[in-house]
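To illustrate the input format used throughout this study, we show a single complete record. The first block contains the structure-token representation of the backbone; no residue identities are included at this stage. The design step must infer an amino acid for every position from geometry alone.
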């Protein structure tokens, strides 16, 4: 029998099989296609998954019975019924633990953010008070949600700066979060909320959020620039977590910026940019950088002043130059930028990243650079999507051995005087 024809330009995320022994994979695969491309007909779903029409119909019937899919007729009377995701079938809370602010979201199965909470952590004292606030934020989000949301909540996802120690579900030694090293975040928040909790690295979470709804199957990089910098790689619609869940650390990439060779993190990190601005007289000499709240506020001021634009541009071009290596290595078509510092930089920063990328890869522009459509909620939304993915059995396959604990390293001396 001939292979079903696919829509022009369509790329299959993953091929299914008609063997009954992997029914769970086929179920997850159909849900994945409907969530990304729906509403779709059974015929289109069969073409996209590589499953037979009968297999798709059988799986769809079970998913309809389980309330995970909905069925509607197309606009024309003679059209086939369309399969769509049932957004209210499952819910998840996502929390982004940023050094300066906690952002929380309530997300439905379609990946839509239906409620958002924000809290500056500056006035709080230590991890215990912040965890209490995160638990209270979770309750506030559920209260703001639709009736019955608590009954269909599958858990809470927490995204935090790395490195993580996945073997023990704790933060290993996050430089931006003093006092959190070794803290059992999953257990502590689970005790406070009496809910299942999943821990993800912030950059990986941002990638998971993009992966939940993107139709890009040719390759995408999600960059998070907050108080630090990381990137998540999406290949075939899946996020590459790495051996320990800490993939995406490319901040040490050497670039030429601010008149010298340096690491890309130093070229565009908010604290470094604020210190440059103070030294250049762009910001007042008394500008405080004592805590993450101060740095964030000062960097936003810097980005909002015409005198600060050259620094923002230099940082953006440096990031674009570093991304050229990643784009070439992985042959990706899209770069999505998010994080509080990228948002503060706005269009000026985005244009500078594009220019830096084009400098290193001149010619026809083949890689699109855009800001995340999810704004400040992008990382928290991704943490919620990680919980939804686990509930739908679309998480990565189990390892043959437990994940290894992260060996915490101190700062390494780098010679970047002659990086090439």
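Output of the design step:
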């Amino acid at each position: 029998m001939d292979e079903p024809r696919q829509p022009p330009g369509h790329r299959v995320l993953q091929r299914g099989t008609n063997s009954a022994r992997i029914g769970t994979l086929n179920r997850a695969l159909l849900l994945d296609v409907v969530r990304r491309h729906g509403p779709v007909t059974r015929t289109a779903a069969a073409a996209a998954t590589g499953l037979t029409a009968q297999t798709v119909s059988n799986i769809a019937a079970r998913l309809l019975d389980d309330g995970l899919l909905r069925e509607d007729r197309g606009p024309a009377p003679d059209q086939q019924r369309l399969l769509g995701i049932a957004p209210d079938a499952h819910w998840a809370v996502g929390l982004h633990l940023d050094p300066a602010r906690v952002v929380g979201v309530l997300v439905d199965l379609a990946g839509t953010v239906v409620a958002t909470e924000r809290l500056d952590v500056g006035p709080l004292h230590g991890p215990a008070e912040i965890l209490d606030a995160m638990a209270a934020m979770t309750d506030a989000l559920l209260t703001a949600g639709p009736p019955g949301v608590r009954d269909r909540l599958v858990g809470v996802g927490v995204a935090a700066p790395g490195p993580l120690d996945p073997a023990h579900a704790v933060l290993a030694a996050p430089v931006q979060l003093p006092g959190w090293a070794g803290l059992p975040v999953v257990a502590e928040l689970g005790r406070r909320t009496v809910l299942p909790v999943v821990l993800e690295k912030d950059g990986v979470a941002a990638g998971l959020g993009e992966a939940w709804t993107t139709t890009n199957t040719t390759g995408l990089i999600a960059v998070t620039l907050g108080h630090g910098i990381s990137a998540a790689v999406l290949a075939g619609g899946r996020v590459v977590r790495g051996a320990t869940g800490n993939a995406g650390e490319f901040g040490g990439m050497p670039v030429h910026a601010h008149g010298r060779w340096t690491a890309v993190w130093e070229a565009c990190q908010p604290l470094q940019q604020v210190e440059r601005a103070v030294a250049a007289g762009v910001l007042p000499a008394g500008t405080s950088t004592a805590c993450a709240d101060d740095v964030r506020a000062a960097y936003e001021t810097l980005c909002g002043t015409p005198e600060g634009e050259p620094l923002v541009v230099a940082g953006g071009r440096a990031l674009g130059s570093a991304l050229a290596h990643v784009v070439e290595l992985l042959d990706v078509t899209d770069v999505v930028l998010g994080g509080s510092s990228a948002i503060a930089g706005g269009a000026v920063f985005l244009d500078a990243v594009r220019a830096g990328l084009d400098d290193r890869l001149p010619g026809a522009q083949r890689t699109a650079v855009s800001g995340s459509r999810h704004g400040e909620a992008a990382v928290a939304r991704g943490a919620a999507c990680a919980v939804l993915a686990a509930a739908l059995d679309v998480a990565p396959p189990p390892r043959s051995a437990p994940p290894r604990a992260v060996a915490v390293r101190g700062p390494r001396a780098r010679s970047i005087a002659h990086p090439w």
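Structural context for interpreting the output: The first strand starts at residue 69 and ends at 73. Residues 1-13, 395-402, 409-420 have pLDDT under 50 and may be disordered.
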